[in-house]
Amino acid sequence: MRFVILTGLSGAGKTQTIRNLEDLGFFCVDNLPPTVIPKFAEACYQTNGNIDKIALVIDIRGGKFFDDLFESLTFLKEQGYMYEILFLEASDEVLVKRYKESRRKHPLAPEGRVLNGIATERKKLKDVRERADHIINTTKLSARELTEEINNIYAEEGQMETKLMITVLSFGFKYGIPVDSDLVFDVRFLPNPYYIPELKQYSGNEKPVRDYVLDFEGTIVFIEKLQDMLEFLIPNYKKEGKRQLIVSIGCTGGRHRSVAIANKIYEILEQSGYSVNIDHRDIYEDVNRGGGKL
């Protein structure tokens, strides 16, 4: 079992770090009172491997309970429970800037200067820092660089590569652009099957409409250009640590053109080996509501 005590200066990046550890499969608990650590550790070790990676955030937010940390760590060592301490820190200037940007009060200086709170916190954490197994200074680290640091220390083989889940989503503009979209493409420039009597009843999931939409020269060129764009963007999104990408393709009602093209893009991405889902948000909206342009 890997048992990590995450601590350090307020504003140094513990919130992001705990999220990174969660992404790596750690069971994470924030602001656990140190007096509870022994019983918590005992319970976790008794799961017979069901919980094998644990991270606890322990810091001065615990108030007087924080002073019990060393006593709890001593107990863990005596019981043979292995643990490691990850300590985060940053320069005074950067910490002050982060507090001013977030407009939060420092827990050790709620009514006073942030700088005074930081100085007091450094003194209280001095002994913990000296016992740390890993110390990360986040002064000059971007969010992506901090993630890389955490991965370098805690990622297992096969976890280093960012897993990006792509969803290709068709929709109708008349029902609004999906709020979670990362990329939005408008295919209303293509001829509308809605105005073809023998096609109106079908959706883009069915062959008559699919063949009609995909046979246009404009569709072929559009798909080629979109594929080229995605092949450029996806590796760069992964490099920056993005884990979910929503590619939304819209037509008027979300039943014909957007569905056919979304399906085609989904097939291309799947054949390229990406993790991809397909979702047709509005495919039945106009049918359910009794008509309108599709």
TrEMBL record:
A GO MF label: ATP binding
Domain RapZ-like N-terminal stretches: 1-155
Binding-site positions, ATP: 8-15
Keywords, alphabetical: ATP-binding, GTP-binding, Nucleotide-binding
Superkingdom, natural source: Bacteria
Sequence ranges assigned to domain RapZ C-terminal in this UniProt record: 165-283
Any matching Pfam family: PapZ_C
Keyword Repeat: no
Keyword Metal-binding: no
Residues that hold GTP according to the record: 59-62
Protein name: Nucleotide-binding protein
